[in-house]
Structure formats: structure tokens, C-alpha cells
Design a protein that fits this description.
Helices cover about 20% and strands about 30% of the residues. With about 160 residues, the protein is α+β, with helices and mostly antiparallel strands. It binds FE2/S2 (inorganic) cluster (FES).
């Protein structure tokens, strides 16, 4: 084996060993959790039928998950990215907003009782209005309801 063949073999080996790590790092996470990184893994979520019903509502998650995590969110929801919380002013009501930041499209998180964008610091009120820039446009609301043990968001 000459020096060139050895170099090619080593390069191929490095690519092969780093590929799984690169793929894992680039895989989007659809649901965000506030759980610390060292927390034990949660039990796998029950499979939910998220096809829209005749009334246009589709299941986003369970009430139990909403109450455990403090919010539900899904980037790939049928109608668009969505985040749902219980209304801090009245826990019987839910609030659902489009979670795509109106500044440059990052995913807004529910943190410290506010919708906050991790990219450039915009904040939004529970009605979706901008409370801190650089975003200037509000987050759009979705209709949301509880039916049994499911949280449903208007999808169509
Ligand atoms: Fe949200 Fe810039 S993308 S503040």
C-alpha cells in the first residue's frame, strides 16, 4: 500500500465513523422538553392519532403531558408549528400559538411564563403580541380545546 492509498483509506474510515454522529446531530427533535439533560428518560408517549377530525381539530398530545411538561409543542403539526400552554390567568383555558418566531423563524419556547425566542431574544405575550423585539409581528393563535384526555388544535 502506497502513501496515497493509505491516505484515502484513512479518510474513508474517518467519514464512516463520524457519519452516525453527524446524522444524529442533524435529526430534528419534534417535541421540546424542559427536562434536564441528566433526568431519566420519560416513558414513551402513547401513540396519538393526529389525523384531523370532521370538525377540523387534530390531537396534539395528552392533557397529562401538557400538565407534566407545562406545554405541548410540535414543529410538524398539520396546520404549522404550534405551542400550547394553560392560560396563566385561568388554568381552565388553553392558549395555542404558532411557534415560529415572526422575526426569522426560530422555534419559540415557553419559558419563565413567557413565549421566548432563543435565537435573538424576542418575547411574546400569551395573546401572541410582541413584548420584546427584534420581532415586530405577533404570533398567530390557533383554536384549541380539550376533549377527554386529549389536547386538540384546529388544523384545517
Ligand atoms: Fe426569533 Fe430572531 S428569530 S428573535
Amino acid at each position: 500500500m502506497n502513501r496515497r492509498e493509505f491516505g484515502n483509506l484513512m479518510g474513508l474510515g474517518m467519514i464512516a465513523t463520524s457519519l452516525p454522529v453527524a446524522i444524529a446531530a442533524c435529526t430534528p427533535k419534534d417535541t421540546v422538553s424542559d427536562a434536564p439533560a441528566d433526568a431519566p428518560a420519560a416513558a414513551p408517549a402513547e401513540k396519538i392519532d393526529s389525523k384531523p377530525r370532521e370538525d377540523g381539530f387534530a390531537a396534539l398530545g395528552t392533557v397529562a403531558d401538557l400538565d407534566t411538561n407545562g406545554y405541548l409543542s410540535k414543529k410538524a403539526f398539520i396546520a404549522g408549528p404550534v405551542i400550547v400552554i394553560r392560560d396563566p390567568a385561568n388554568a381552565d383555558d388553553l392558549i395555542a400559538l404558532n411557534s415560529m418566531c415572526t422575526h426569522q423563524g426560530c422555534g419559540v419556547e415557553w419559558k419563565d411564563d413567557a413565549f421566548a425566542c432563543p435565537c435573538h431574544g424576542s418575547k411574546f405575550g400569551t395573546d401572541g403580541s410582541v413584548s420584546a423585539g427584534p420581532a415586530t409581528e405577533p404570533l398567530d393563535p390557533y383554536e384549541v380545546m380539550i376533549d377527554g384526555d386529549l389536547v386538540l388544535v384546529k388544523a384545517t
